[in-house]
Structure formats: structure tokens, C-alpha cells
Inverse folding.
């Protein structure tokens, strides 16, 4: 029998929607049941929207886990993954959802429709997301040969200021030395989420709601996100930083 699965080398991102499992535990509550239905409907729309074979991006959603992958393991592949995560974050934040994740490269298998992904790279990314991503952060295990290589996805499509960009332009170094996606900065350049400061108000509302949780671990995630948003505002909008950071202390 011919197998429907094909093995490839590429880049894979495993993203976990935070707080989803807590909502599942409260399914006896009709209000939460309606919210879960709304979220799953939104996720289905997102899955269809981000499965773009023309650009080599596949998107699959399993419960509260979103898997984005590309068979392109060059600098272009990283740039495509990073910008896809930024646009995905735009959709999730608009639905009041935050997430964390891990991006890695390696061997994985997918079926012909690219709706099922298995393999070492997927397992590595899934385990790393569970064990190492504490807050709303996307850590990145990147191929050192590609980190500073200019991407061909420049010009009017992806780059800002018409400059050639490399995967390293999207990354920041955490205190422990690990690389992480500069998510808010990437969204600022590659989506319209922050137009007219709308995205800042959306995130401030998400953070305010999250801080109402009585669970200290959940509160810690929103405190981290609030600090990240504050740093972003001070960098992107220095002239308006005082006004825009009100409520984030």
C-alpha cells in the first residue's frame, strides 16, 4: 500500500493557546460553552486562512494547539514563519486570546493535504513549548547557517524601509541566552494591528482581564505580557509612551 505521508526537512512552529484548557474544565457553564464554540469557529477560519500552499505555509489546529510549517528551511522559510505568526497573533489577539510557542527546524512528515504533521521536529517543538515556554513567548531554535542570511522576501512584500532582512532581524535574546521572536515588533512591521494604537488598547484589555485571575501562574503570564507591551511602546512610540503605558504598572 502506498503511504500518504511524505518526509521533508523544514521549519515548524507549535503554538499553544493559553487558558483554553481552563475554559474546557468549565464546560458545564453555558456561557463558557458558547465561548468555546465561538473560539473553535474562529480557529477554523484561521486554519483555512493560514493554510497557504502558494506561499509554502501549512497550518493545522488540534484542540488548543496550532501548528504552522514550511518545507522551506532557508532564510526565506524563517521569514515566512515569523511573519505568519505575527499575522496569526493579530487574529488571536482580536479574539482575546494569547499564546506561547516554539519554532524549530528538522525532519517531519505530512500527508498530501498537509493537515497532519508528525516526526522528530514536531515532537521536539511540542516538548520544548510545554517545558521551556513559561510565559506568552515564542522561543526559536534557528539554524545558525541561516540566521544572518538575507532573505529574498524583501522589497514591497515583507521588508520595511526597502532593506534586505534576515531571520535575525526578527529575534531578541532572552536573559538565559535563548532566542525568541520579537512578536510585537514583528506585528508592528508586518500587520496593521497597531494602526491608530488600536492594538495597544486590545492588548491592555486582554491584560486587564487576565490579571483578574485568582491563579498566580495565570496572572504571571499577563504580568509578563504587560511588561513586554510596555517595552514595545517605549521603543515604537517614545513620544506617546507616558500616555500609552497608563494602566500597565
Amino acid at each position: 500500500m502506498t503511504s500518504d505521508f511524505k518526509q521533508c526537512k523544514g521549519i515548524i512552529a507549535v503554538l499553544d493557546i493559553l487558558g483554553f484548557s481552563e475554559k474546557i474544565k468549565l464546560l458545564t457553564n453555558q456561557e463558557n460553552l458558547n465561548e468555546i464554540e465561538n473560539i473553535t469557529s474562529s480557529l477554523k477560519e484561521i486554519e483555512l486562512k493560514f493554510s497557504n500552499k502558494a506561499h509554502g505555509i501549512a497550518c493545522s489546529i488540534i484542540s488548543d494547539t496550532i501548528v504552522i510549517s514550511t518545507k522551506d528551511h532557508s532564510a526565506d522559510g524563517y521569514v515566512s514563519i515569523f511573519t505568519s505568526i505575527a499575522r496569526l497573533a493579530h487574529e488571536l489577539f482580536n479574539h482575546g486570546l494569547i499564546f506561547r510557542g516554539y519554532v524549530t527546524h528538522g525532519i517531519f512528515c505530512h500527508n498530501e493535504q498537509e493537515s497532519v504533521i508528525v516526526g522528530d521536529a514536531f515532537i521536539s517543538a511540542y516538548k520544548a513549548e510545554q517545558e521551556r515556554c513559561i510565559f506568552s513567548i515564542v522561543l526559536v531554535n534557528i539554524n545558525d547557517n541561516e540566521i544572518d542570511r538575507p532573505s529574498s522576501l524583501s522589497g514591497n512584500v515583507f521588508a520595511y524601509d526597502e532593506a534586505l532582512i534576515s531571520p535575525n532581524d526578527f529575534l531578541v535574546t532572552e536573559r538565559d541566552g535563548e532566542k525568541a521572536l520579537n512578536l510585537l515588533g514583528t506585528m508592528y512591521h508586518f500587520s496593521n494591528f497597531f494602526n491608530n494604537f488600536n492594538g495597544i488598547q486590545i492588548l491592555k484589555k486582554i491584560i486587564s482581564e487576565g490579571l483578574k485571575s485568582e491563579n498566580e501562574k495565570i496572572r504571571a503570564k499577563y504580568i509578563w505580557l504587560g511588561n513586554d507591551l510596555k517595552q514595545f511602546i517605549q521603543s515604537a512610540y517614545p513620544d506617546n509612551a507616558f500616555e500609552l503605558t497608563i494602566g500597565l504598572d
Observations:
- The helical segments are 20-25, 30-50, 75-94, 120-132, 183-190, 198-210, 216-236, 241-244.
